[in-house]
Structures are given as structure tokens and as C-alpha cells.
Amino acid sequence: MDAATITSWMREIDVAVRAERDHLVQLDAAIGDGDHGTNMVRGFEAVVQALGADDGSPPGKLLVLAGRTLVSTVGGASGPLWGSALRSGGRVLGEQMTFEGNQLVEVLSAALASVKDLGTAAVGDKTMVDALEPAVDTLRSRLHDGVALDQALDAAAAAAEAGMRSTVPLQARKGRASYLGERSVGHQDPGATSTALILRALQKAATKGA
Ligand code: ADP
Ligand code: MG
User: Sorting pLDDT into bands at 50, 70 and 90, what band is 209?
Assistant: First the structure.
């Protein structure tokens, strides 16, 4: 994988959040303030634009640029959270021009650690961590077992989707939805939903280059 993989990943996210914008808005309207779909679309539209203007940076630098762009364009919680995630992930790759699956695990681990540091959420708090953590764990264990990268990424995306669905019966303990207390139960978390889209986009982008 290389810089083109990152650009392709960000384009796939842009396409996915556009297609799911209204759904993300509805989910956030139920337990938040209804801006998650527009936040994600605005953010990743700006990311695609920023990456399109870049001239030959290595993949890590592109991730850092993407993260910076999200922080500066998205006002909601998801902007700084995904922004710091992509910046931390990008730093793992430094200046190298290509990377393998095991380093992708390190990138995603750093992204997860950054989200958990900043947002202090754990699995079960009904946030994006419920989708991201099982995805990272699944990717790591599948690659460790010798599964091919595209299949491991497919399993990771499926784990994120399962994590997303697991948020429905939970009561939110972090973010805006936590203000609702028990009334947050019975709704799927918007951030976990967009995180599942982001992991599915990664699988598509990485498979394309294979
Ligand atoms: P805001 O809540 O500021 O309107 P968004 O609507 O864009 O921001 O994003 C909401 C999502 O952000 C939630 O569904 C949740 O997944 C995620 N989120 C909120 N707070 C946290 C946190 N402390 N840690 C992890 N994720 C969080
Ligand atoms: Mg919101």
C-alpha cells in the first residue's frame, strides 16, 4: 500500500458518508443534535480536496494532512476525534513511501489510542470506540493468523459493523447522547455508524490497489 491507498480511502469515505448523510443525520437527531451527517460530509469533502492539491507526499503525511483538515473543518466532536486519530495514525508511517498490513494495524491502533485519550470513552460507552476497537483487534488477530490482507480487512469492517449494531441497546456514557441518560437506549450511535463506513471504505481502497 502507498499514498494512492490513502487517497483512495479518503475518496471512498467521502462517497460513503455522502450516500449515508441523511441516515447519519437521523441517527444523530434521535440522540444528539442532528449534525453528524453534515459534519462528516463537510469534513471528508475538505479532506479529498486537500489531498487532491497535494503533490507527492508519502502516505503518513497524507493522513496527517487529512486529520488536520478534519479538525479545521468539523465543529462537532467527530472532527477533533477523527482528526487526531488520522494525525496519530499518520505519524506512525513517518516518511516511508509504502507500508504493509502489519503497519496498517499500527496506524489504526494509534488512531484508536488517540480517540480514547481525547474522548476517554471505552467499549460499551456507545461511541465510535464500539466500532473502531473491535475492528482494530480483528485486523490484528486475522493478520497474525496469516489471513490475507483483503480478507482481514473484510473481517475488520464486519467487526466494525457488528460493533455499530451493538450500540443500539446501550446507554450512552460519553458525548452529547449521554445527556439523555436512559433515553439514549434503543438508538444506534451515529459515530459508530460512520466509523463502520470508514472501515468498509478502507477495505475497498486497499483491495483496489491489490
Ligand atoms: P457532536 O456530538 O459534537 O454534535 P457529532 O454529531 O459529529 O458531534 O458526533 C457525534 C459522535 O461522536 C457520537 O455519536 C459518538 O460516536 C462520538 N463521540 C462523542 N463523544 C465522544 C467521546 N468522548 N469519545 C468517543 N466518541 C465520541
Ligand atoms: Mg452531533
Answer: low
Q: What ligand has the least distance to the C-alpha of 38?
A: 1
- State the CB neighbour count (10 A cutoff) for residue 188: 20
Work out which ligand 1 atom sits closest to the CA atom of 175: 20
Please determine, for residue 163, whether its predicted confidence score (pLDDT) is greater than 90.
yes
Distance CA 62, CA 56 (A): 9
Q: How far apart are CA 190 and CA 96, in angstroms?
A: 34
Place of cell 486475522: 142
Give residue 188's Cα distance to chain centre: 16
Residue 81: CB within 6 Å of ligand 1?
yes
Q: What is the mean pLDDT of residues 121-147?
A: 98
User: 52 CA to middle of ligand 1, Å?
Assistant: 27
Q: Which atom of ligand 1 lies nearest, measured to the CA of 127?
A: 16
Comparing CA positions, the residue from 85, 72, 77 lying closest to residue 177 is 77
Q: Distance, CA 208 to ligand 1 centroid (Å)?
A: 30
Nearest atom of ligand 1 to the alpha carbon of 33? 4
CA 24 to chain centre: 14
Q: Which domains does the chain have, with CATH numbers?
A: 3-209 (1.25.40.340)
